[in-house]
Amino acid sequence: MPRDALKAKILLLGDGAVGKTSLIRRFVVDQYSDNYITTIGTKISKKDVILGRPPHEIDVVMQIWDVLGQKGYGGVHETAVKGAQGVLLVYDLTQEDTRRSMEEYWMPMVWRLAGRVPMVLVGNKSDLLEGRVHAHEYLYYLSQKFAAPSLMTSAKTGDRVDEAFRTLAERVVPTSRTQAPRLELVTPPQEPVDRLIRVADKIMTDFCYQMGGVETGMPIVKRQFERSGVDVRAPSEETLRAVIDRLAEVERDFKTTSEIETNRQRRTRWLGGDELD
Ligand code: G3D
Ligand code: MG
Protein backbone atom coordinates (compact mmCIF):
# COMPACT_ATOMS: atom_id res chain seq x y z
CA MET A 1 0.00 0.00 0.00
CA PRO A 2 1.46 3.40 -0.90
CA ARG A 3 2.22 5.45 2.12
CA ASP A 4 1.43 9.12 2.42
CA ALA A 5 4.55 11.16 2.01
CA LEU A 6 5.21 13.96 4.42
CA LYS A 7 6.73 17.13 3.04
CA ALA A 8 9.33 18.98 5.02
CA LYS A 9 10.92 22.31 4.20
CA ILE A 10 14.48 22.19 5.43
CA LEU A 11 16.90 25.06 5.37
CA LEU A 12 20.69 25.25 5.57
CA LEU A 13 22.05 28.38 7.17
CA GLY A 14 25.51 29.54 8.06
CA ASP A 15 28.26 31.85 6.87
CA GLY A 16 29.59 31.76 3.32
CA ALA A 17 32.07 28.94 2.53
CA VAL A 18 31.26 26.75 5.54
CA GLY A 19 30.11 24.02 3.15
CA LYS A 20 26.31 24.30 2.87
CA THR A 21 26.17 23.75 -0.88
CA SER A 22 28.69 20.89 -0.61
CA LEU A 23 26.68 19.17 2.13
CA ILE A 24 23.51 19.34 0.03
CA ARG A 25 25.32 18.04 -3.04
CA ARG A 26 26.78 15.18 -1.00
CA PHE A 27 23.41 14.28 0.50
CA VAL A 28 21.30 14.65 -2.64
CA VAL A 29 23.59 13.26 -5.37
CA ASP A 30 26.47 11.84 -3.33
CA GLN A 31 29.08 13.96 -5.04
CA TYR A 32 31.67 16.47 -3.98
CA SER A 33 33.35 19.15 -6.01
CA ASP A 34 36.12 21.53 -5.12
CA ASN A 35 34.88 24.24 -7.42
CA TYR A 36 33.52 26.88 -5.16
CA ILE A 37 30.55 28.64 -6.65
CA THR A 38 28.98 31.30 -4.46
CA THR A 39 25.32 30.59 -3.94
CA ILE A 40 23.26 33.48 -5.26
CA GLY A 41 19.87 33.85 -3.68
CA THR A 42 18.32 30.49 -2.89
CA LYS A 43 18.45 27.10 -4.57
CA ILE A 44 15.92 24.39 -3.81
CA SER A 45 16.59 20.64 -4.15
CA LYS A 46 14.52 17.61 -3.24
CA LYS A 47 15.35 14.31 -1.66
CA ASP A 48 13.12 11.50 -0.42
CA VAL A 49 14.06 9.67 2.75
CA ILE A 50 12.40 6.80 4.52
CA LEU A 51 12.41 6.92 8.30
CA GLY A 52 11.61 4.16 10.77
CA ARG A 53 11.35 0.42 10.15
CA PRO A 54 8.67 -1.69 8.49
CA PRO A 55 5.77 -1.70 9.00
CA HIS A 56 6.02 1.76 10.50
CA GLU A 57 7.98 3.54 7.84
CA ILE A 58 7.38 7.15 6.98
CA ASP A 59 8.25 8.71 3.65
CA VAL A 60 9.55 12.21 3.95
CA VAL A 61 10.06 14.41 0.93
CA MET A 62 12.72 16.85 2.02
CA GLN A 63 12.65 20.13 0.21
CA ILE A 64 16.09 21.53 0.90
CA TRP A 65 16.73 25.25 0.64
CA ASP A 66 20.30 26.36 0.07
CA VAL A 67 20.39 30.01 1.08
CA LEU A 68 23.05 32.58 0.31
CA GLY A 69 25.33 32.82 3.36
CA GLN A 70 26.24 36.47 3.03
CA LYS A 71 24.97 38.47 5.99
CA GLY A 72 22.76 41.45 5.31
CA TYR A 73 20.41 39.82 2.79
CA GLY A 74 17.51 40.20 5.21
CA GLY A 75 14.79 39.95 2.57
CA VAL A 76 16.20 36.82 0.93
CA HIS A 77 16.79 35.19 4.32
CA GLU A 78 13.38 36.15 5.63
CA THR A 79 11.61 34.65 2.62
CA ALA A 80 13.58 31.43 3.02
CA VAL A 81 13.30 31.10 6.78
CA LYS A 82 9.56 31.69 6.96
CA GLY A 83 7.72 28.42 6.90
CA ALA A 84 10.88 26.36 7.43
CA GLN A 85 10.13 23.22 9.46
CA GLY A 86 13.72 22.39 10.22
CA VAL A 87 17.09 24.07 10.04
CA LEU A 88 20.57 22.69 9.67
CA LEU A 89 22.89 25.30 11.12
CA VAL A 90 26.32 24.89 9.68
CA TYR A 91 29.70 26.23 10.70
CA ASP A 92 33.26 25.48 9.67
CA LEU A 93 35.18 23.58 12.38
CA THR A 94 38.39 25.29 11.32
CA GLN A 95 36.99 28.87 11.41
CA GLU A 96 35.97 30.08 14.81
CA ASP A 97 34.20 33.20 13.54
CA THR A 98 31.74 31.02 11.59
CA ARG A 99 30.79 29.28 14.82
CA ARG A 100 30.33 32.60 16.57
CA SER A 101 28.08 33.89 13.84
CA MET A 102 26.05 30.70 13.99
CA GLU A 103 25.35 31.46 17.64
CA GLU A 104 24.97 35.20 17.36
CA TYR A 105 23.49 35.78 13.94
CA TRP A 106 21.94 32.75 12.26
CA MET A 107 20.38 31.13 15.30
CA PRO A 108 18.63 34.33 16.49
CA MET A 109 17.43 34.95 12.94
CA VAL A 110 15.69 31.59 12.89
CA TRP A 111 14.13 32.23 16.29
CA ARG A 112 12.86 35.57 15.11
CA LEU A 113 11.42 34.42 11.78
CA ALA A 114 10.45 30.79 12.25
CA GLY A 115 10.42 30.30 16.00
CA ARG A 116 11.95 27.40 17.83
CA VAL A 117 11.80 24.93 14.95
CA PRO A 118 13.80 21.71 15.11
CA MET A 119 17.47 22.33 14.46
CA VAL A 120 20.59 20.30 14.05
CA LEU A 121 23.99 21.91 14.61
CA VAL A 122 26.67 20.86 12.21
CA GLY A 123 30.40 21.49 12.45
CA ASN A 124 31.60 20.78 8.91
CA LYS A 125 35.04 20.02 7.40
CA SER A 126 35.93 17.41 10.02
CA ASP A 127 38.48 16.02 7.54
CA LEU A 128 40.58 19.15 8.13
CA LEU A 129 40.50 18.91 11.89
CA GLU A 130 43.66 17.88 13.68
CA GLY A 131 42.97 17.90 17.39
CA ARG A 132 39.39 16.73 17.79
CA VAL A 133 38.98 16.96 21.53
CA HIS A 134 38.32 20.67 21.80
CA ALA A 135 35.97 20.67 18.80
CA HIS A 136 34.03 17.77 20.30
CA GLU A 137 33.73 19.48 23.64
CA TYR A 138 32.56 22.66 22.05
CA LEU A 139 29.97 20.86 19.98
CA TYR A 140 28.69 19.17 23.11
CA TYR A 141 28.43 22.53 24.82
CA LEU A 142 26.44 23.97 21.87
CA SER A 143 24.17 20.99 21.91
CA GLN A 144 23.35 21.57 25.59
CA LYS A 145 23.06 25.30 25.23
CA PHE A 146 20.60 25.18 22.34
CA ALA A 147 18.94 21.84 23.17
CA ALA A 148 19.64 20.53 19.68
CA PRO A 149 21.60 17.53 18.40
CA SER A 150 25.01 18.36 17.03
CA LEU A 151 27.51 16.48 14.94
CA MET A 152 30.69 16.81 12.92
CA THR A 153 30.48 16.19 9.21
CA SER A 154 32.69 16.21 6.17
CA ALA A 155 31.03 16.98 2.85
CA LYS A 156 34.36 16.04 1.31
CA THR A 157 34.55 12.45 2.60
CA GLY A 158 30.82 12.12 3.22
CA ASP A 159 31.35 11.37 6.90
CA ARG A 160 28.05 11.67 8.86
CA VAL A 161 26.37 13.80 6.18
CA ASP A 162 23.40 11.43 5.76
CA GLU A 163 23.08 11.20 9.50
CA ALA A 164 22.89 14.98 9.85
CA PHE A 165 20.00 15.30 7.40
CA ARG A 166 18.20 12.23 8.74
CA THR A 167 18.51 13.43 12.34
CA LEU A 168 16.84 16.64 11.30
CA ALA A 169 14.11 14.80 9.36
CA GLU A 170 13.36 12.67 12.40
CA ARG A 171 12.92 15.73 14.56
CA VAL A 172 10.78 17.49 11.98
CA VAL A 173 8.24 14.71 11.56
CA PRO A 174 6.54 14.89 14.98
CA THR A 175 6.30 18.70 14.83
CA SER A 176 5.38 19.06 11.17
CA ARG A 177 1.76 19.98 11.82
CA THR A 178 2.33 22.51 14.52
CA GLN A 179 3.65 26.03 14.27
CA ALA A 180 6.57 26.91 16.49
CA PRO A 181 6.06 30.09 18.51
CA ARG A 182 8.24 32.98 17.43
CA LEU A 183 10.68 34.48 19.88
CA GLU A 184 11.13 38.18 19.35
CA LEU A 185 12.77 39.29 22.54
CA VAL A 186 15.85 37.13 22.69
CA THR A 187 17.34 38.36 19.44
CA PRO A 188 20.25 40.81 19.57
CA PRO A 189 20.04 44.13 17.72
CA GLN A 190 20.98 44.01 14.06
CA GLU A 191 24.25 45.39 12.82
CA PRO A 192 24.07 48.06 10.12
CA VAL A 193 24.15 46.58 6.64
CA ASP A 194 26.09 47.86 3.64
CA ARG A 195 23.80 50.02 1.49
CA LEU A 196 24.46 48.21 -1.79
CA ILE A 197 23.86 44.82 -0.17
CA ARG A 198 20.49 46.13 0.95
CA VAL A 199 19.76 47.24 -2.59
CA ALA A 200 20.79 43.85 -4.05
CA ASP A 201 18.65 42.11 -1.42
CA LYS A 202 15.63 44.27 -2.22
CA ILE A 203 15.99 43.71 -5.96
CA MET A 204 16.16 39.93 -5.50
CA THR A 205 13.20 39.84 -3.13
CA ASP A 206 11.15 42.24 -5.23
CA PHE A 207 11.74 40.35 -8.46
CA CYS A 208 10.78 37.02 -6.85
CA TYR A 209 7.66 38.59 -5.39
CA GLN A 210 6.73 39.95 -8.82
CA MET A 211 7.26 36.50 -10.36
CA GLY A 212 5.03 34.79 -7.81
CA GLY A 213 7.66 33.28 -5.53
CA VAL A 214 11.18 32.12 -4.88
CA GLU A 215 10.90 28.92 -6.86
CA THR A 216 10.07 30.75 -10.08
CA GLY A 217 11.94 33.97 -9.48
CA MET A 218 15.23 32.88 -7.93
CA PRO A 219 16.64 30.83 -10.84
CA ILE A 220 16.16 33.89 -13.06
CA VAL A 221 17.68 36.20 -10.45
CA LYS A 222 20.70 33.93 -10.19
CA ARG A 223 21.27 33.86 -13.94
CA GLN A 224 20.87 37.60 -14.37
CA PHE A 225 23.03 38.46 -11.33
CA GLU A 226 25.76 36.23 -12.74
CA ARG A 227 25.50 37.71 -16.23
CA SER A 228 25.71 41.20 -14.83
CA GLY A 229 28.79 40.26 -12.82
CA VAL A 230 27.29 41.15 -9.43
CA ASP A 231 29.49 40.05 -6.53
CA VAL A 232 26.88 39.35 -3.84
CA ARG A 233 29.49 39.86 -1.11
CA ALA A 234 30.26 43.39 -2.30
CA PRO A 235 27.95 44.50 -5.09
CA SER A 236 28.92 47.60 -7.06
CA GLU A 237 26.57 50.32 -8.24
CA GLU A 238 27.44 49.64 -11.86
CA THR A 239 26.67 45.90 -11.78
CA LEU A 240 23.42 46.55 -9.91
CA ARG A 241 22.41 49.04 -12.59
CA ALA A 242 23.13 46.35 -15.17
CA VAL A 243 21.06 43.77 -13.35
CA ILE A 244 18.10 46.17 -13.11
CA ASP A 245 18.24 46.47 -16.90
CA ARG A 246 18.51 42.74 -17.43
CA LEU A 247 15.61 41.95 -15.13
CA ALA A 248 13.51 44.51 -17.01
CA GLU A 249 14.49 42.69 -20.20
CA VAL A 250 13.30 39.36 -18.74
CA GLU A 251 10.05 40.92 -17.58
CA ARG A 252 9.13 41.70 -21.19
CA ASP A 253 7.87 38.15 -21.47
CA PHE A 254 5.64 38.42 -18.43
CA LYS A 255 4.57 42.01 -17.80
CA THR A 256 3.09 45.04 -19.49
CA THR A 257 5.31 47.90 -20.59
CA SER A 258 4.07 50.13 -17.81
CA GLU A 259 4.58 47.46 -15.12
CA ILE A 260 8.14 46.94 -16.34
CA GLU A 261 8.82 50.66 -16.26
CA THR A 262 7.36 50.99 -12.75
CA ASN A 263 9.54 48.11 -11.54
CA ARG A 264 12.63 49.55 -13.12
CA GLN A 265 12.03 52.98 -11.66
CA ARG A 266 11.40 51.60 -8.18
CA ARG A 267 14.61 49.55 -8.26
CA THR A 268 16.59 52.49 -9.63
CA ARG A 269 15.30 54.68 -6.79
CA TRP A 270 16.64 52.15 -4.27
CA LEU A 271 19.99 52.37 -5.98
CA GLY A 272 19.80 56.15 -5.65
CA GLY A 273 19.32 55.68 -1.90
CA ASP A 274 15.57 56.29 -1.72
CA GLU A 275 12.97 54.24 0.13
CA LEU A 276 15.46 51.73 1.38
CA ASP A 277 13.71 51.04 4.65
P1 G3D B 1 28.79 27.40 1.19
O1 G3D B 1 27.72 26.86 0.28
O2 G3D B 1 28.45 27.27 2.64
O3 G3D B 1 29.18 28.81 0.85
P2 G3D B 1 30.53 25.55 -0.20
O4 G3D B 1 30.11 26.50 1.00
O5 G3D B 1 29.80 24.28 -0.16
O6 G3D B 1 30.47 26.32 -1.46
O7 G3D B 1 32.04 25.23 0.19
C1 G3D B 1 33.02 26.25 0.36
C2 G3D B 1 34.42 25.66 0.26
O8 G3D B 1 34.63 24.70 1.30
C3 G3D B 1 34.70 24.89 -1.03
O9 G3D B 1 36.11 24.94 -1.25
C4 G3D B 1 34.37 23.48 -0.68
O10 G3D B 1 34.99 22.56 -1.51
C5 G3D B 1 34.94 23.43 0.73
N1 G3D B 1 34.34 22.40 1.56
C6 G3D B 1 33.02 22.20 1.79
N2 G3D B 1 32.85 21.17 2.62
C7 G3D B 1 34.07 20.70 2.94
C8 G3D B 1 34.56 19.62 3.76
O11 G3D B 1 33.79 18.87 4.40
N3 G3D B 1 35.89 19.45 3.83
C9 G3D B 1 36.76 20.25 3.15
N4 G3D B 1 38.06 20.00 3.29
N5 G3D B 1 36.36 21.26 2.38
C10 G3D B 1 35.03 21.49 2.26
P3 G3D B 1 36.92 25.96 -2.19
O12 G3D B 1 38.34 25.57 -1.98
O13 G3D B 1 36.45 25.69 -3.57
O14 G3D B 1 36.60 27.31 -1.67
MG1 MG C 1 26.71 27.87 -1.19
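^ magnesium ion complex. The mean pLDDT is 89. DSSP finds nine helices and six strands in the chain.
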